[in-house]
Batch of 3 targets.
Target 1
Amino acid sequence: MNMSFLQELFSNITQRDALQRTFGGRKANHTHSDLDDACQALLHSDGEAASIVLASRALDIYHSLDDDNKRAFFESLAKNFAADPRKIDDAYRAYKTDRSNRHLAELFEVSEPRRQELLRRLNLAQGATYELVRMRQDFLSLMRGHKDFDPINADFIHLFASWFNRGFLVLKRIDWTTPASILEKIIRYEAVHKIEGWDDLRRRLDSRDRRCFGFFHPAIGDEPLIFVEVALTKGIPDRIQPILANDHYDIEAAELADSAAFFGISNCQVGLRGISFGNFLIKQVVQELKQELPNLKNFVTLSPLPGFRSWLEKTYRSESGLLTPEAQETLALLDDSQWVYDDEMTNSLNEVVRPLAARYLLKEKNHENLPLNPVARFHLGNGAELHRINWMGDISAKGIEQSAGLMVNYLYVLEHIERNNEKYITNGEIACSAKVRELAKSGRKLLQGEHEK
Amino acid sequence: MNMSFLQELFSNITQRDALQRTFGGRKANHTHSDLDDACQALLHSDGEAASIVLASRALDIYHSLDDDNKRAFFESLAKNFAADPRKIDDAYRAYKTDRSNRHLAELFEVSEPRRQELLRRLNLAQGATYELVRMRQDFLSLMRGHKDFDPINADFIHLFASWFNRGFLVLKRIDWTTPASILEKIIRYEAVHKIEGWDDLRRRLDSRDRRCFGFFHPAIGDEPLIFVEVALTKGIPDRIQPILANDHYDIEAAELADSAAFFGISNCQVGLRGISFGNFLIKQVVQELKQELPNLKNFVTLSPLPGFRSWLEKTYRSESGLLTPEAQETLALLDDSQWVYDDEMTNSLNEVVRPLAARYLLKEKNHENLPLNPVARFHLGNGAELHRINWMGDISAKGIEQSAGLMVNYLYVLEHIERNNEKYITNGEIACSAKVRELAKSGRKLLQGEHEK
Amino acid sequence: MNMSFLQELFSNITQRDALQRTFGGRKANHTHSDLDDACQALLHSDGEAASIVLASRALDIYHSLDDDNKRAFFESLAKNFAADPRKIDDAYRAYKTDRSNRHLAELFEVSEPRRQELLRRLNLAQGATYELVRMRQDFLSLMRGHKDFDPINADFIHLFASWFNRGFLVLKRIDWTTPASILEKIIRYEAVHKIEGWDDLRRRLDSRDRRCFGFFHPAIGDEPLIFVEVALTKGIPDRIQPILANDHYDIEAAELADSAAFFGISNCQVGLRGISFGNFLIKQVVQELKQELPNLKNFVTLSPLPGFRSWLEKTYRSESGLLTPEAQETLALLDDSQWVYDDEMTNSLNEVVRPLAARYLLKEKNHENLPLNPVARFHLGNGAELHRINWMGDISAKGIEQSAGLMVNYLYVLEHIERNNEKYITNGEIACSAKVRELAKSGRKLLQGEHEK
Amino acid sequence: MNMSFLQELFSNITQRDALQRTFGGRKANHTHSDLDDACQALLHSDGEAASIVLASRALDIYHSLDDDNKRAFFESLAKNFAADPRKIDDAYRAYKTDRSNRHLAELFEVSEPRRQELLRRLNLAQGATYELVRMRQDFLSLMRGHKDFDPINADFIHLFASWFNRGFLVLKRIDWTTPASILEKIIRYEAVHKIEGWDDLRRRLDSRDRRCFGFFHPAIGDEPLIFVEVALTKGIPDRIQPILANDHYDIEAAELADSAAFFGISNCQVGLRGISFGNFLIKQVVQELKQELPNLKNFVTLSPLPGFRSWLEKTYRSESGLLTPEAQETLALLDDSQWVYDDEMTNSLNEVVRPLAARYLLKEKNHENLPLNPVARFHLGNGAELHRINWMGDISAKGIEQSAGLMVNYLYVLEHIERNNEKYITNGEIACSAKVRELAKSGRKLLQGEHEK
């Protein structure tokens, strides 16, 4: 279809948003009970015309509340916007007598917390979608640990999952020609490897061997939901510092690259936590890149191993007797802050740390029998395979502290994704290169009494 | 924000849609039970990667089914994709013991028909949103009267109401520079006053005194959801024929118009029946027009009165004794197909028909105590007021047959909309001009024995 | 760079154009001498502000003139807007004494016809570029044969060649999603194979095996300058009727085509005659198609042979004795309007007509020693090669009348274009397939007394 | 017309530009004589296909030259690309005999320096237009003072005036949502009040009381040609510092402003010197602003007075006896770098400097009898009027050094522009407010022996 026609379409939503609620509400001295009243009025409103006005008013009031009043409002959401028990009793009784679709529908309807209808109606106001994402962000920070946290949270998630359906997300390349108003958000939201300002941003984006893509949502406008940074390289890269410095893997032309390395995926909206976009994003970006650069052969991540260092400490260093004395001793070198600059120490550590990391990734599971490491869980769950563990992959302070300096490549092979995913889901089986498997096996000899296993 | 950035965003969704499912599936010899299996697989799939593939497959199969198999599939939706009664029993038991939000959430979750989750998952496939709208269109036509129709229909509506949330709709002006692929749909979907082809379309759109606006949805692309046609006029127009012929109300320049007359509102997607857009559309168009043409003073419809003629027949002509003999006799002139060309007859009829129409609009109510006439119900429900009843407003065959040649102006006065809406909702009170009220009153003397009332 | 930013840029120019000069001027009773005065005022104006106003006024007056007054104005252009002879004499005298760049510059300046400065100044008004193209269209039709035609025409060409510099042209794909306002121009301007209306247009454009591209100019807006229609086929097509009917060469998907056949190139603006775009257009379209569809191997035309039939008549039928009696007799079959439906006749004709066509294309030259046939001249001049002559390639009435039913494929082989072009320019050498050369050779035996050559 | 269609058009030109000549040429060891050869080949090429290739090659070679070789090339342009004297002699002889348009056309053609045809042909290459602008930038800097400078320069100007015709320029609002690639150029090109980086830029652009507009050219892409910065204010502003700090004239909403103050106009392309855009820019921006903000009443500049301080020094301080002793003494306070912080001194200076500035603006003329001050010349030439001279309008170091701290408001009153312009052109009459005229008059008493005049 005509792209330009479509493109034009979307000015409206966002234009409306942009103008809106900028000055409203904040000045007034509202309390949570004003908001309660406004919400009740909204829920009882019959006409759509009135609803929009009431929804705008309620959002304006919410906007003007301080944290205490917001907290009180969330408590009221829990208490006053649940469901009518008598209606549920009646509906269940009818359903029990005749388990028809009709009675099921009634039961479903009356057991829906009224909060959900409230949120749907609030969403009628202009720009409301983003306001509600922000409201959930407040909710997550103000109500964490509150006893009614989970069910209310579930109400948000239930609606957001519909509103942020994958079909409504829009992939957009981000580069140096992207509007500054969006780029400043990229600077702000980058979560993996901090961007130090406009010059650093330009270094990351404005190079023939870099790509960055984000997901956007029509009703949210220029707020990215998630974005990923990609380096085009010859060969699969094993270290992050040259990529960040943009001084090493540089290539003559994008066409000469054979690998696309995803080195940073950042979720931007705290209020959308639990609505997952990363999986779709990676796969769509792979498609985009394949189309632009048919020479690309490897789609791979260069990922941190957060939690590995502390796992290492907790597992092997606090408890003696698990590792061989030599391994134990070598591991202690990590305490010497100079180890990264000392060839001998790094070589020794390499012999011990990488094998243990391979074991950590392949053997350590959480309560659902999925990998303990969250990044591994994410990529393996997407159908990627564990390809390589890179020693000295990230020698920044953060990299050493969290990942003992390691970085991991997860490989996305489009033809294997489905199969990998299925095995992973069904048996928790981890797709893994022979080398990493070998490495894990070699780790055994570091363990006391495991040689025979 | 930068419009062009946003505009660009939306190529993706729709580009994906455009390429997709064009050739797939249709050739295979699938039956409804293949689709059943595919849907069960989709519901039991754990990974997102797999879900997308499974969703695409299911939609492809659906696409290839004939009507009988589709019907069988809808029956299976009713039978096999309801909810698990035992889980409901358990959840209700827990809820009854402790009516907490947690137990409510569980009850809500288990009493959600599995169809809804199925539809949500189907929506993961590319272009699925429109496919599902089309699926509901099939459903409405194939299952009407089926005993389990309503609850399944409610499941569609529940999801569509979220997906087609007002905040996601995009208003777009349609004119002669709109892509042909969209214009041909305008020709096809115009429901009020048929468009006879490209030349007629051009006459309707490509004139300085015409406007047309439609709502579009990002995930649906170039399929309009609803559109409205507007004529800019000096004074509030009372007849549709000059507007359709574009030979009468023509003005030197749009800036000289004082009135915007909405003369046709067409819903385009049968599959979205019950999801209402018209109210929002009118109000947003009023805003657009006010901004473009600050001189506009009247925002008004030129609407048909469908059902009036048959009501007239049923009420007054089949039953004698209600009208005065003179009125009864005059009414009989309607049977003479030549009456529109006869001044005497039209004058006589005018004396009788318009007052009765005023009474019809103001007094005749449906079971919810709302106006019997659906067009009146729509506009009055939006907060408009009944402004004028125009004799010989539409002398086309259809106009005479349905509306006894009358057309009605409903006036949208922005400052009164909310108040009108409230009164209408609360007491069923109809906002109405003094003249129409007068007219209705004058109708009393046509009724036998009503003079004294 | 950011495309969307650029795209937005161009609203302005054209928006301004669109609104402008729509109502102005026409009502007044102007004569050519009013226009003369306005032009003199414009030429003598010093300030830019004033110039714009004066330019607009002059164009408005021009617009309101009838043909006689326009003709008088063009005569005045010839007479009153030439150059000042005394200044030329002075400048030449100075130049003759000292042939420096400074004196050359002066001579150049004073010998520039004042018409050129006038046209440049007229071009300051909004939308003037298109107005001036239309003015030249008038000029070409009203002044043809006029004794001062050529120099004035040269003044237009001199300026248009700068304004319509290839760097300012914009290639745009035209398809069913293109605005109707542009598509109606495609219908109107198609010059090779008439388009019969919207349905026919859709058949030509809205198919996966069709492409259409046009050149546009920023200051002209939605008026195409030239466009080309392309069919994607398996193998090089030899007949136009199946393509026009869209019922033969249809392919499963564009990706399966190995050939792109250019079957119609239409210049749209008479006023731009002599400013050539076709060469650039073809080459740019080849680039676009290669990028979209890497499988394409052949870029080829399916071209008519206008003038061949009349050449045939004139050369061989009016003069007896050139052809062998048998050939002469066969050729006479062309007079039988039924020959296309008679296998025997078509077979006989094929034996005679194709070889003669090959000779016509390869041997018949114009006064510049270039091919007599204009279509051949165009494509061979672009560096294409004569690939195949197709019997019964176009059996429409027009095809038979002009081209004796033949169509010709010219092949664009990117790597040969430059070499072909050079040989053609230098020696008039025609790049040609072995088969066509063979065919031409075989034609010799149709000629009396040429068997031995 | 359909804007989005148009907008899409323009991707091509610039996309081509962007990719182009990025890596080419620079590595080779070319000299000016290689370029000479390439240019001669280009001029002698017959086919368009070949021309484009040759043009690209020539530009690549130019690109790779060092300054000495570039200088040599420009000298060769002067020497080897002039015209053929014999042809000129012949053409003149024919013209002298018969002064017809035909002979004039021939003379014009042969006296056109071949450089012009060369530049036109170079412009066939992709992205060439901008390359040629850059070439002229080199020319201006490398050849200044060279004896053949002017005529070659005139050749550039002759062509650029056609290519950068006002009708091809595109006005574009620049704000915080503009692509970063363009914003960084705004930072770089701002000539009047330096922008200190991204934060300063944001302060200047991203505020509801700021506007910035630039002219762009389709064939040049994202390089602005000129841009203007505007502050929306209540009342006509008299000081620049609060505007730059964005801390004073801030208004609640753009709609509340009554004045638009143009406080910086920056030409961006040195290579386009002599092609004037500022006049068109200001007028088009006034139109844009009037449409967006109908409440605006004043369109005014806040302009520096460059050269005033040095004029003051030269005229009055170097030559004693012109001013009264008191005035002379007061003027000497300017030497005290602390005067801006001293109320007494500033008050005294005010009494002397402003009246002298008024005289300077109204009385001091250049050799063409136009105002000596270039900024005044520009705005008055555009039809603006001298509205107010503001004491302490710019107390930056630069403001004090160049303008003695003054800033001037020039007022653009649309209805007066033409009249002002005409009077200015015809008699050099300066449109001026009564107050400034009064001020100038009051200056007389500062002059010795002028009291009686």
Target 2
Amino acid sequence: MKQPLCGIVPPLVTPLRDNETLDVKSLERLINHLIDGGVHGLFILGTTGEEQSLSYSMRQQMIRETCRINAGRLPVLVCITDTSLVESIRLADVAAECGADALVSAPPYYFATGQPELAQFYEELVPQLPLPVFLYNMPSHVKVSFAPSTVARLAKMPQVVGLKDSSANAVYFQSVMYAVREMGRDDFSMLCGPEEITGECVLMGAQGGVNGGANMFPELYVAMYDAAVKGDIARMRHLQHYIMQISSSIYSIGQHGSSYLKGLKCACSLLGVIDDDFVASPFYKFNQPERDKVQKALDALPIKNGKLEI
Amino acid sequence: MKQPLCGIVPPLVTPLRDNETLDVKSLERLINHLIDGGVHGLFILGTTGEEQSLSYSMRQQMIRETCRINAGRLPVLVCITDTSLVESIRLADVAAECGADALVSAPPYYFATGQPELAQFYEELVPQLPLPVFLYNMPSHVKVSFAPSTVARLAKMPQVVGLKDSSANAVYFQSVMYAVREMGRDDFSMLCGPEEITGECVLMGAQGGVNGGANMFPELYVAMYDAAVKGDIARMRHLQHYIMQISSSIYSIGQHGSSYLKGLKCACSLLGVIDDDFVASPFYKFNQPERDKVQKALDALPIKNGKLEI
Amino acid sequence: MKQPLCGIVPPLVTPLRDNETLDVKSLERLINHLIDGGVHGLFILGTTGEEQSLSYSMRQQMIRETCRINAGRLPVLVCITDTSLVESIRLADVAAECGADALVSAPPYYFATGQPELAQFYEELVPQLPLPVFLYNMPSHVKVSFAPSTVARLAKMPQVVGLKDSSANAVYFQSVMYAVREMGRDDFSMLCGPEEITGECVLMGAQGGVNGGANMFPELYVAMYDAAVKGDIARMRHLQHYIMQISSSIYSIGQHGSSYLKGLKCACSLLGVIDDDFVASPFYKFNQPERDKVQKALDALPIKNGKLEI
Amino acid sequence: MKQPLCGIVPPLVTPLRDNETLDVKSLERLINHLIDGGVHGLFILGTTGEEQSLSYSMRQQMIRETCRINAGRLPVLVCITDTSLVESIRLADVAAECGADALVSAPPYYFATGQPELAQFYEELVPQLPLPVFLYNMPSHVKVSFAPSTVARLAKMPQVVGLKDSSANAVYFQSVMYAVREMGRDDFSMLCGPEEITGECVLMGAQGGVNGGANMFPELYVAMYDAAVKGDIARMRHLQHYIMQISSSIYSIGQHGSSYLKGLKCACSLLGVIDDDFVASPFYKFNQPERDKVQKALDALPIKNGKLEI
């Protein structure tokens, strides 16, 4: 994997038949769809990938199958977030054995840690891991944020090669980026989670985005990345309109925090990227009325042959 | 297990040598110490037991060893809280095979669920479990509370036999107790987590407490329970003083949320109830200065032959 | 005012005709209703009294009228919570001039302060106030809690004579009570906000309750206080049933945090204690469907001649 | 005032001698400093202006003096955020009388409102106001956010002419901007609070920034605005470095949420823009050790004759 990692690295949805059955055929279709769409890496078992809802054997299967299907075409990043250090390492070892390129880790998410405890935890974990590591900032789900000073402390370990930030807090993103740049870590990759702001982050110096919408329309987010790299602002604003249209329609059906995940999987299924949009417990896929709304949201987009005409 | 379950059911600390080694000898000493102290049940793998920090194989070992050592003397409750429904069921099956009496489950704690999703999750999970189930309310760690109306909805399943509330919100506790009583569920056990308020909760009609301090001084919390059952208020206030002294000294060293766990394990170790006070990642046991403070806090208590003179 | 202040000190609703008109006749009826019901003090301009929603001239009018109507029959406590120290002092001076007995102050609630800043603020404010002061813990509204150690620090000022805690966190309540008792402040009054737990708090040593429900049924909360003081547990449980019935019906209509206030004012109006149940902006009184539900909740209570038969 | 309002509209610090004395001479110097620095408007009594900590008479004085000193050179925006609708209107009337151009209002901040209550509140307030209104999103201080759908509902009133967002949540900012654009409100001004992200927001279509740092160095933030408008990305990145340097040094001294305010006022005082850096209660200005750190942070910047050489 070249460092810093640059571009659009979609967090893959995990195609499921039920809580215990991975839909490998859909996974194959999804991965090829992404690669055809021009993405720059594959990120599995993240929040969008429902890692925490999957059994450990399925997490391992997902790693194995992804690496097999990818067959070295793109860097594969595997999320190993866990509340147990031992299980984190176990998953990391599987990832290395299967040929993955890097690991991603959010803080343990049952107990909330103070910043010194958090730093100490990673200083213990990272050296036991067989691959480069991206930190994963996800305060809404894990209750704690990596303070910029904690990122700087952890970035002293060369094995820590980037941060994926899903906080949506753009001031935080700028602060971490500034702190890491001040250290001279030019190989450190700042990746933006929310697709709604990836364009502007890349323009200000970030390396790329981990955008869930790319499961549906990889070409859209890749185009935004390219426009931002080129500084083509008119093009960025044009693309941003579609990105916001998707965000405000497909991800905003229903009233719970799970709207994003349900909407995304449902749309992938309607687009034929995956078969079933089964969502693992504790969530449930949309019923028909919500499914109809997603279809309507898709119909409002200029899709031709499964691709956005942008 | 008689229903409703009544009395003091301590959440056992998990004696560890390191992240991967259970200290079975200390566990044996701890269990006998608790039974000698008069407690009414054993609750393992809860928050105090660091379930989420332990590997799955150690969780299983902890179940097996506890059931073996207990040898049917007391009801054994096993916490199966997990983000994955499949892993929860797997752990429940181990508990049943080993002869445990009941299960305890807090909501999935990575994704935050809305109340309808939460209810639906338990309506899917509970029928797949081989033993009676206590709901476990722990909003500070899992980000979501069982609304009183959700408890009432779930209490329609006879297999749901109680609620352990660790919220410290006494209005919430009263609200759930009222809702369940209104349903006529006299076999439903309301257990109070925080030892600082177990006395008053029992006095108002709760069945008992899941009090971490009982790992150190089981006789104190059993005495409080007995006094509350008898309505001996003078005795309650006398005992409450010691309970608050412990809470405000032993659990309040250090500045992070982990103070309770570190202080409790350290005190157990100093009292000889367990050997090492190793705390699993992402936490770390106290260093010597904090350990000295715990010792000083213990010295201020009227301990004779390892027991509180109360 | 005798110290410590003991008993039920209801937080008076503020009877309004509109945002700018105090309904003085209803206020007179309310105060007489409360005194007839046996309460031990009057607490005005608290959260239940909508202080923050009222203009300053109306706050002053409310102080003046309450002191005039009360005519020395009961201690009058005036809430002076404000974001501006200068305005707080101004209101306190009015209270003193009108003959009020004590002040109540929650932390400034726009900027959130750290604990040292909070302590320093009160060390500056209190000496400038003309009357004894109760601290008012209300974290859900003011975003910051008085840490037990901060209460202890402030309780070194003899002018600080009590704490009203509306957190519903009973562990917090016990911790503060323990901290203050350890200082030997036997004249310090611990008052419990939520009526659902006032009984148990008094039983464990608290001095009383600031219970909103007393606006409707002062006799119920006074009876609970008396039972708790006597240690009559059977009576407490009997009364607690009604208290919870009120809480779970009248205060639980609608889905926003304002349900308590709207339900309480609506019930007071239906019971004839006040005329209109106008709620000051940013809230609005219940519409007819919700009003019908409150009436139904009242009908389910054993009311005779406007009093609960308990 | 031209609509939409565009550019840098600094939130003025309020120069104080003590809690009750406005430093009018410093205010005059500050306003001239800002106008010389090229800013596009003046925003007074915001969070940076400590509105909530000031007495009402001082708020009125601040409005009067600002309008007098400004003498029509720039649009003046006056924040009227209050918990009392009546007091909000009163302040708005003063602003209109003094010749201010627009009002700014954050939600009432003692009671937290639900979205329908919030919308209803503004639908009641706005028609009673004598000037155009900017909504002010400040969830960390007022506990509630204007949902994008609520902004869209309120933007149906032509008198609502913009939104200032201080949430730092860039996804939120994009969502509101998209919702308002979809309505065809081209005269609606989207202003970004945090200076760390104003550049990227303007580039994506926002109208400007309400940047506190402009009190010190107006020319820096104006230059960033100009660069963003021109799409000069190299220049933006160059300027962003200084903006982040200021943010990570001057605003990050001390451990409480007040660091920003204390650091900013201290720096203004050291730069001679204002005399004293007195901070109104409940806060306190920096002591000498912190003041030295601010001086050091200033020394690290390329300042010449009180201006940044950029």
Target 3
Amino acid sequence: MSDYAEPIERLIDEFRRFPGIGIKSAQRMAYIVLRRGHEENERLCRAISDVKEKIRACSRCNNFSDSDPCRYCGPSRSPETICVVEEPNDILAVEKTREYHGRYHVLHGALSPINGVGPSDLMIGNLLERLREGEVKEIILATNPNVEGEATAIYLSKLLKPIGVKVSRIALGLPVGGDLEYADEMTMTKALEYRHEM
Amino acid sequence: MSDYAEPIERLIDEFRRFPGIGIKSAQRMAYIVLRRGHEENERLCRAISDVKEKIRACSRCNNFSDSDPCRYCGPSRSPETICVVEEPNDILAVEKTREYHGRYHVLHGALSPINGVGPSDLMIGNLLERLREGEVKEIILATNPNVEGEATAIYLSKLLKPIGVKVSRIALGLPVGGDLEYADEMTMTKALEYRHEM
């Protein structure tokens, strides 16, 4: 006999599917769902279905957005620079510096042979298409300063430099082994300032 | 202009309503919802609605259950002892010891004047009703070993002893300031063994 009634067990399992949510957090969340009103639970489910319905990947940069092209692909941003990041959230870390006025490209991942993630799993194809348009002068590689991010930066640099575009890497002012998402504004500003050509 | 498109912002807000889920966790969860298939999101929402539909508080002990009376209020458990806990999850901490064969009573909270939680906010009324049936010989107060739990135990002991029932408190083998939910089996076993009459 399980410790929980089946519907509670099933809800705990569903919450545990989110990375970072352990058994204790999932149990607490399930009990909150049980305690609070139907209205609040329906609002959560409506938010889940709305986000899937209204949010799409931008056809240019792959950022999640409710418009296509997204806000960062519009005419207010310089088309001469593309900052390549792993995840949509990483865009916010760069935006926080208020120092960058170019465009973005979201890879939706990083190379990781151990986890079976190869170049074909990343959104590299439409990055090459954007370069063919000829407006781009510099690519800033802002992948994470960890093993996967570095490998991805080296791979992209070897791929892109023969095309004749300037390729730079954000400075490793970010603590090595860390995550772009947690960078503070100053560290991120330094990292942009000291980018070096590859 | 917000950092996120409105539907993403709204979903992040909904996840943040769960205590213990911070901004970073909520963002990650929202992106997972965006990335994974409709089917997985629907399964989560179905689990949420099922749990609200199928799980009720047991009319005797207030434990969340898919049956009424719940599994711990059945004839397999001794009606002579009632173990009073703050939350349904705390029952599992006591069950893990395999040393307790009596019944339970869930208060759904603890006294906390600072948070405006008084005796009338706890499920004390139907505990008194159960005592009136005359089968109960001992009440074990297994509220948490922190300020609120101690205050609740003292309040209940003063309320219950005049009725003529034996009232005991689990031993403070549990680390003071801790939480019943995190107790290991041995500590919990000691706490049951060394309960003292109040």
